[in-house]
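User: Can you predict the 3D structure of ABC transporter permease? Sequence below.
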Amino acid sequence: MNKQSTIKKNNPVVFMLKSNIGIISVMFIIAIGLTLLTPKFMTVNNVISVLRQISNNVFLALGMTMVIILGGIDLSVGSIVAMSGTLTVGFMVNNGLPMAAAIAAGLLLGAVVGLVNGIIVATFKVPAFIVTLATMNIAKGIAYIYSKGQSTRITDDSFAMLGTGYLFGIIPLPVAYMILLIVVFAILLGKTKFGTYIYAVGGNRESARLSGVPIKKIEILVFTITGVLAAFAGIVLASRMYSGQPASGEGYEMDAIAACVLGGVSMSGGVGRISGTVFGAIVIGIISNGLNLMGVSSFWQLVVKGLIILAAVILDSRKEALSEKLKKKKITH
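Assistant: Sure. Here are the predicted structure tokens for ABC transporter permease:
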């Protein structure tokens, strides 16, 4: 067992910090800069607000991390957010479904879209980019057709509590969900056979196949889980907004991808960690919050996010090129 493996086993927190030292440094530099520019940034209320704001992106980014490590991409998650949130609220307001049944139906819708994505990608070998681009439009269309393009208001306090309530009167419930899901998916990806299979498929598909990895099942399951996470994000968002809005979720897939790439998840597959993705989501949340506090237009915020994604992708490609050079040198020597 090498030194890195020993640290990972005996001191997982130290290993996590060392593995993400780059993004953590960036996070602190940005936070310090924003604190100097706007004193309101580093207050307890604002920190809690940032955590609440990033929770939805984290829900999506957890699934996106698995998809990208697998070697794919999922552009449909933002539309699933809109579809699930809109229809869940609609089921209660327009169709009289009990809250539990409506939520279950909303989650099921997300699972179905994810399942369709997974089946087509795994069975017909169609690139995930194309498949999820199609289902992105389908899910968005369903939200608009069902709602006739109108937002649906809900006044059910029990439903509103899902997104606006607090745990122990201190921690916002979306933050509590986020922490729980981070732990679950960190274990799932880092400590289970399922996680090992995801890395194996993303790292070398042919070797994984020869090793007996059930590639089709893994792909279908990953996309289905991602769909459920997106549906959950949509329901929590609808709860926070007291309404189902077909226009919600616009551009959410880009934020999720940005969080993954910033956190070190390689777009070529096989590399990435949940912890890195979480720090990536925090950086994006800090930047968005800081720009809002400084009164920067939302249009300029889109430009900033685009530049962040572009820079992260370029850095990722350079890391890949450097890694290949080092491998060739080792083989030569």
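Strands lie at 152-153, 166-167, 171-172, 243-244. Residues 53-267+301-311 form one domain.
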